[in-house]
Design brief:
The protein has 283 residues and is α/β, with parallel strands linked by helices. The chain has two domains: 124 residues, Oxidized Rhodanese, domain 1 (3-Layer(aba) Sandwich), CATH 3.40.250.10; 116 residues, Oxidized Rhodanese, domain 1 (3-Layer(aba) Sandwich). It is 29% helix and 12% strand. It is built from ten helices and ten strands. The strands form two sheets. Strands 1-5-4-2-3 form a five-stranded parallel β-sheet. Strands 6-10-9-7-8 form a five-stranded parallel β-sheet. The longest helix has 12 residues. The chain is globular. The mean pLDDT is 97.
Length: 283
Amino acid sequence: MSFTTLVDTDTLARHLDDPAWVVFDCRHDLVRPDWGAAEYAQSHIPGARFLHLDRDLSAPMTGRNGRHPLPDPETIAAKLGAAGVGPATQVVVYDAQAGVYAARAWWTLRWLGHDAVAILDGGWGKWLREDRPETAALPAPQAARFAARVRPLAVDAGFVLAHLRDPAVKVVDARGNDRYRGENETLDPVAGHIPGAVNRVIKENLDPAGRFKPAGELRAEWEAFLGGLAPGQVVHSCGSGVAACHNLFAMELAGLTGSRLYGGSWSEWVADRSRPVATGPNP
């Protein structure tokens, strides 16, 4: 049996010594980009490798491709192979930020054609609260061959621009309500949102404990939010293509499969000042 959305801490604990399982620590802080690697060096789940949002899960910035451009498929495939991920490997990803960065890793592997990837339910925090094993020892992975088979799970700025007024395509913006409205923008040079985009903040995917809501509850909420649109009509966006993966994952967990990611998101959108911008609470 493979896990493709969530995996619980009990199950992972039973597979810590399983060579067919590979775990990735994805902890990150946008303000302190070296924080996650430093935390990993101090303590992590035994056997876990580290994936850095900027260096591993993103391509270099050019000034026009957003703050976290999608990684080059062959480059990230080589890193995954070096970490021991092969075609039959069960991958588990975790972070300490309610799945935000783990979801980017999860989506990246799915985009590359690897289905057996799951987010650790409750993440690092739940693992620690349960007094599970942790270590500072670095793993020594046995390299495998990971071949990228890129799937059409992402759209570009051209696609979004071409469908701005298309009722059959809905952009869902995962940022906080204030940034969506064009207020308190501290990360990008232009405030606002893509015209026509609707706002669903990622915290709405979580229960009071910070874990993903049950699949049935998520499904009911997302179906009401989308108002009859099929998952394939949905494009997820945020500031830089990271938090958007959280919404996309929540839809997948709810059984609403087939939505896509605008990888460049707002930070790429506003890099070209000719693209239209909306402000205020309405799409």
